[in-house]
Write a structure and sequence with these properties.
By secondary structure, the protein is mainly α. The protein has two domains: 61 residues; 78 residues, no CATH class. Helix 1 runs antiparallel to helix 2, helix 2 crosses helix 3 and helix 3 runs antiparallel to helix 4. The radius of gyration is 18 Å and the shape is globular. The relative contact order is 0.11.
């Protein structure tokens, strides 16, 4: 599991880089209004980062638990998106709670919140989205 968590962390860094690069491209070359720069572009870049992260997760981290079919790939995307959005909500809540209690700088609060929300996101993927299938023998043993 530690190996998957390290890969998951690398995936997070890649997703952040992609998110930032897409955001920069959009606000530099495509969008010029306040709404498009501060609402639309970050939303698009965040989703592109999520999708790149999903591809990494599907084909590199939990590839031993997937069917490697187009249907399976598409079927898991909504759950993955919800898990990422849920962990993002947790991150925002923790960031604000830490700020209110300890009065740390927002960057420190963000890093602490990312640490905890990252674990939540990892375990959502490990235990729900890419849950390991039980063998018939394990299933029978569990029902005894």
């Amino acid at each position: 599991m530690l190996k998957r968590f390290i890969k998951f962390t690398i995936r997070g860094l890649v997703g952040t880089l992609v998110d930032t690069a897409v955001l920069w491209l959009l606000i530099t070359y495509a969008f010029h209004t306040y709404f498009s720069k501060y609402i639309l572009a970050p939303s698009i870049s965040f989703e592109v980062g999520i999708l790149v992260g999903y591809v990494i997760i599907y084909f590199w981290i939990w590839n031993h638990r997937v069917l490697n079919s187009f249907k399976d790939f598409i079927r898991r995307i909504p759950k993955y998106n919800l898990a990422v959005l849920f962990s993002f909500g947790i991150k925002l809540a923790l960031l604000n709670i830490i700020k209110q209690i300890f009065h740390f700088d927002v960057i420190i609060c963000n890093l602490i919140a990312l640490f905890f929300s990252g674990f939540i996101n990892f375990f959502a993927n490990e235990k729900i989205i890419f849950k390991e299938k039980k063998t018939v023998v394990e299933d029978l043993y569990e029902n005894l």
